[in-house]
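Quick one, T. Sequence first:
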Amino acid sequence: MRSTGIFLLFLTLASAVPCADVLAAALSCDGGIISTGDRSIDVLAKCGAPDSKESHQEELGEQLDDNTKQKVFVTVEEWTYNFGPAKFMRIIVLKNGVVANIRLGNYGYTRQAEPAQRECGEQLVSVGDSKTDVLAKCGEPTLKDSHVEEIRERLGDTERKVFVTVEEWTYNLGPTRFVRILTFRNSTLTDIRTGGYGY
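Structure tokens:
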């Protein structure tokens, strides 16, 4: 009985703390349930188009024998579904068009984010936020720049090459405020900088 009470307390505490990137087993949409192994066409048929979609490439290299090395190219997509401010967003990760996992994001947002658009300070956004989170809090940036970086990782006999999309979003907050520059790596906010005064 005591262990059941502790388990229920754990569940209550866990559900009370919003946490991004928690794995979800499945996603229930109006058209049906999506789970690992489903194809992108199934997701579109059951859940409709996502609110945002990001993608990057990964290259996996494996030494098959002394003379043969195999390269596999994987397209990784993250589809984010926003169900409003009372529910967590869902992020579906697809690899080469197949659902690899489903994560819980932060709470969703209402589409009328205009009052927050002129703010976008560090109290609103933080490192680890997704692009969807930032758009909900700050609106569209004044300027977007992007480039791709290549990262190589050694995994035993396998080498993995990851192409990271790096984006810089610049927010002009007017002549009496400093410009905000937000850096995203594969759709995750990794750096917040302050520039000169806006215009």
